[in-house]
Amino acid sequence: MNEAAGRRYSKVAMALHWLLAIGVIAQWRLAVAGENAPSDEAGSAIMANHFSLGIVVMLVALARLAWRLVRPNPPLAADLAAWERWLAKVTHTLFYVLLIGMPLAGWYAMSKYGTGVDVFGLFALPALPVATDPEGAGDVFGFHAAAGIALLVLAAIHVLGALKHTLIDRDGNLFRMLPFGTPKA
Ligand code: HEM
Ligand code: HEM
Question: How far is the CA of 142 from the centre of ligand 2 (A)?
Fold first, then answer.
């Protein structure tokens, strides 16, 4: 069908993409809820979920990249301007850098506190063999939070791009990532 015509992502790629999108939004809302929690206990419980889901998001991003080797992405729409092509590629690449780099930074920072990362009680990443350094851990988390803001800015650019193409240019861009509708370009 359309997938065969080369305009649409594979079903597996779509599923992983939407899981990542939901995961990123959930991570953002959890971090904000953790910061504004009424008590330290409530904050820790919320952040434990943020840590766990963060590792899951990283694993899904790695699975998405692995799947790309099995089924390469369809080429970007042929009628995109050079700057649009560039912006899409930079945004997509930075997404993966952040989706893998941010959890790794979190794991590294936790290790500086001397603990690993428990993932929903199912398994735990062990503390990395680094010297205990709570101050350094705080710095890494500060960097992680800044990266989180960058990720949200990228997501806003990404969504505005998809909506501009779908609603204004009417090129069916969004349907490249959905199992229905018609991608045109
Ligand atoms: C914030 C979370 C999101 C992340 C991290 C994300 C990430 C990505 C990445 C990395 C790609 C490149 C293809 C791939 O490697 O799978 C992509 C493509 C795409 N995304 Fe997202 N996405 C997010 C949210 C959204 C949302 C909310 C929409 C809908 C408005 C959307 C619509 C699309 C579309 C239509 C494509 C296909 C672009 C094309 O090849 O023409 N994404 N996304
Ligand atoms: C891809 C996965 C992850 C995403 C998208 C993500 C995203 C975010 C965002 C958006 C913030 C809030 C920034 C702000 O409002 O200031 C944040 C804060 C935080 N995250 Fe993550 N995170 C991820 C994984 C992790 C992991 C795996 C850990 C720990 C093991 C972690 C630990 C923290 C901590 C401690 C904060 C509070 C930092 C501070 O305010 O100093 N995150 N994260």
Answer: 9
Residue 96 near residue 73, CB atoms below 8 Å:
no
Q: Which residues are near ligand 2 (CB < 6 Å)?
A: 24, 27-28, 31-32, 47, 50-51, 54-55, 57-58, 99, 102-103, 106-107, 110, 117, 141-142, 144-145, 148, 151
**The length of the chain, given as a count of residues:** 185
**DSSP string for 94-117:** HHHHHHHHHHHHHHHHHHHTT--E
User: What number of other Cβ atoms are within 10 A of residue 172's Cβ?
Assistant: 19
The CA distance from 92 to 110, in Å, is 28
Residue 184 confidence class, pLDDT cut points 50, 70, 90: confident
Note the pLDDT tens digit of each residue in 85-119: 999 999 999 999 999 999 999 999 999 999 999 99
Q: Closest ligand 1 atom to the C-alpha of 23?
A: 2
**Is residue 185 predicted with pLDDT exceeding 90?**
no
* Residue 137 host element (H or E): helix 134-163
The CATH code for residues 11-177 is 1.20.950
CA-wise closest residue to 64 among 5, 120, 14, 28: 14
